[in-house]
Amino acid sequence: MELKEKITKAFADRFGGEGTLYASAGRINLIGEHTDYNGGFVFPGAIDKVIMADIRPNGTDKINLYSLDLDDTSTFGLNEEDAPSQQWARYIFGVCRETIKRGGTVKGFDAVFAGNVPLGAGLSSSAALESCFAFAVNNLFNDDKIEKFELARIGQSTEHNYCGVNCGIMDQFASVFGKKDHLMRLDCRSMEFEYFPFDIKGHKLVLVDSVVKHELVDSPYNKRRESCERVAAQLGIETLRDAEMADLEAIKDRISEEDYMRARFVIGEKQRVLDVCEALGKGDLKTVGERMYQTHEGLSKDYEVSCEELDFLNDIAREEGVTGSRIMGGGFGGCTINLVSDDKYDHFIKTVSEKFEKRYGHAPKIYPVIISDGARKL
Ligand code: GLA
What we know:
By secondary structure, this protein is α+β, with helices and mostly antiparallel strands.
């Protein structure tokens, strides 16, 4: 059964009748990692993997949720002290609370949701969940008056205040603003962004999932952010966006070796995003790929958010002549993103699957990337 049918059927069984369907998407990021909370650039796009929800106001002040994938329910009120115990429900509670804090209206509703964004793979299933409900609450109770950037911020604040992850804005932005066949370069300082037609003739983009569980809650993610903030404070600037390599060298003896390495990655990554956007515009995929490998190297050695499995996947990509490959997302597990020429594609997929399985006892998961729309009413 299709996702949509499964959800509407479960809604009818549980609550009777029908609601309104909403969806939002997971995301990829071509380049620009750990730059969003440093005021830098990111270059993401929404993908064809979604979280979908069927929602209907119920005329009470209670929210009744059913997660079809987890086969679990949660009921809660809309006051701060009503926070549900399950983590999955806190994402939705957080979205409601953050909407209310911004002066928006939220009333009771019944909802059933499910999705096909792989969990813990670094594809931002949580951002998809947040933006799906933020979009729905805006549509159902606020006449679409909350502007789209605010919807993304509602998701981001949910992570900060209800889930313990001090994330940047990239995932929620991509999930809300995603547009079919386009990537978006977002300047996370000015919040200006531009759509880029995603045209990689003769190549494919594919994710290879190590299936190493990526979990940002309680992860060293927040520690990375703190390192960057310490260096920025030493430099007397707001974020590392405003630092050059020479500035970092000048304060090297005043910061820890670890903070130095973290900042070195972030400063280098800023230029790589700009290089990739320019190269993509010219159809120069060789440069795009080179920068992707450089990002992997930096994320692995300087930012230290890789793991053995992801480095192994990256090594195989190099051996197979893949144009570009790197860890994608926050790191600590999840996927690599690979830019592969059509003639090398089949061989790469076969080899990477076999070699990985031989080494780790399980095959990686392969997800071809299709750039799609973000949050929407169906
Ligand atoms: C996670 C965060 C994002 C971003 C990436 C790394 O996905 O949610 O805000 O920082 O990691 O680029």
